[in-house]
Amino acid sequence: MRTEYLEYLLEVARTKSISAAAKKLFIGQTTLSAIINSVENELNVKIFLRTHRGVGLTEHGERVIAIVEDMVAKNRQLQNLFSDTEPVRRNVALVAYPSACSALGLYLTSRLNKAKEEVTLSMREVVSTKVVSGVANGMANIGIGASAQHEFFNNQYTAHNNGFLFEPVYTDHFCLCVHHDSPLAEKVIVDISELGAEHLAVTDSHPASSVGGVLKYARRFSVFNNMEVIKKAVLAEQLVAILPRLSYFDDPLVESGALRLLELTGFETELSNFLVINQNVGLNTQEQGIVALIREFYDELEQRELGGYVPEQ
């Protein structure tokens, strides 16, 4: 029996609800029910009694939970036995599309530093179409992806087929980034058809079907391998760039006015960000903490846009 299953049993016993426990544990209700059944079969005992009022303990279940509480406490004691002399660094792996790697990576690092968490964060940048498959292939248990509307359901379908949690977290939009001296900088909204005379900078790391559709309007374009090179190209050569707004999160070049961000029309600019979690394996404590921080990050983004964000002191 896996040690994390003991934690699951305790959470169900505390909440008296499989659905409530599943939410706290960041796993699916069906997955948690299957784990409970497997434990009961392994021990050959009925632990929980399911009723219309919730979940209760059987007589045997009370004895099981008492032993489990002791085992969990001993396990935590063992894990922390030498924590005062040599902290154990725990690695949390994420796969994310480029904009999330840039913005979310810094946010998570800052929060972990403030909390003095002994966690090694490993973010692996993948193209947006490879996030769900990256989780499926075992690169990480947590992924942050983005897709245009017509691709969104394909990602959702693939995630659900693998038994993953798939959660939309934020709606982003592609925007036009220009040099502050560009004639376009005086505009607020630019239609894609107005870019015929511009030299366009793009990256193939973002949904190709979205950006690819605009290339027919540009006579000249360059495909760069990362966003930072694109920003340098806009500054040094006065190219114009099409990237998600998240790519410019807290960007000093935008805050200083060196780069201007303009609203785009004329093609599908909406970009849905989603969180995908391999709930089949069960997240450890550190991974659960990272998931909570990811949700906080996207909540703060929405609050900023609504004008209700208050920075931490």
From TrEMBL:
Q: Name one GO molecular function term.
A: transcription cis-regulatory region binding
Matches recorded under CDD domains: PBP2_LTTR_substrate
Task: List the coiled-coil residues.
Answer: none
Source superkingdom: Bacteria
Matching entries from Gene3D superfamilies are given as: 3.40.190.290, Winged helix-like DNA-binding domain superfamily/Winged helix DNA-binding domain (1.10.10.10)
Q: Which UniProt keywords apply?
A: DNA-binding, Transcription, Transcription regulation
Q: Which InterPro entries match?
A: LysR_HTH_N, LysR_subst-bd, WH-like_DNA-bd_sf, WH_DNA-bd_sf
HTH lysR-type domain spans which residues?
1-58
* Family (UniProt): Belongs to the LysR transcriptional regulatory family.
Cross-referenced PANTHER family? HTH-TYPE TRANSCRIPTIONAL REGULATOR, HTH-TYPE TRANSCRIPTIONAL REGULATOR GLTR
Q: What is this protein called?
A: LysR family transcriptional regulator
Q: Which organism is it from?
A: Candidatus Flavonifractor merdipullorum
